[in-house]
C-alpha cells in the first residue's frame, strides 16, 4: 500500500527544522560563472541544460541566469 501523505509542517516537526531556518540554495548565472561570451546554438549538449523534456526554454527563476545576459546572447 502507498504511504499516507504528510504535510510539510508534519515533516519539519520530525526533523526539528522550520522552513525559515533551512538554508536556501543560491541561484547563480551559469554563463557568468563559466565565462561564456558566446552561445553556439548548434551545440545540442550545451542547450539541453536550459531546455525541458518538451523542448521549451526553462524560465530564469529555474535556471538562475540573468535576464540581460539571456537577451544579449
For this entry, give a set of tags.
single chain, 73 residues, mainly alpha, 30s Ribosomal Protein S18, 5 helices, 36% helix
Oligomeric state of the chains present here: single chain
Mean pLDDT: 74
CATH topology of the domain at 26-72: 30s Ribosomal Protein S18
CATH architecture of the domain at 26-72: Irregular
Supply the number of helical segments: 5
How far the N terminus sits from the C terminus, by CA atoms, comes to 50 Å
Rg result: 18 Å
Name of the CATH superfamily of the domain at 26-72: Ribosomal protein S18
- Secondary-structure element pattern, one letter each: HHHHH
Topology readout:
Blueprint lengths: L7 H8 L14 H4 L10 H4 L12 H4 L3 H6 L1
Describe this structure in words.
The protein has 73 residues and is mainly α. The mean pLDDT is 74. The chain has a domain at 26-72: Ribosomal protein S18 (30s Ribosomal Protein S18, Irregular). The chain is built from five helices and no strands. The radius of gyration is 18 Å and the shape is extended.
In brief:
With 73 residues, the protein is mostly helical. 36% of the residues lie in helices and 0% in strands.
Amino acid at each position: 500500500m502507498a504511504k499516507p501523505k504528510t504535510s510539510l509542517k508534519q515533516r519539519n516537526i520530525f526533523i526539528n527544522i522550520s522552513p525559515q531556518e533551512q538554508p536556501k540554495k543560491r541561484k547563480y548565472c551559469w554563463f557568468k560563472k563559466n565565462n561564456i561570451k558566446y552561445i553556439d546554438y548548434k551545440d545540442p549538449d550545451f542547450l539541453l541544460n536550459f531546455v525541458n523534456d518538451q523542448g521549451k526554454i526553462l524560465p530564469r527563476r529555474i535556471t538562475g541566469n540573468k535576464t540581460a545576459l539571456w537577451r544579449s546572447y
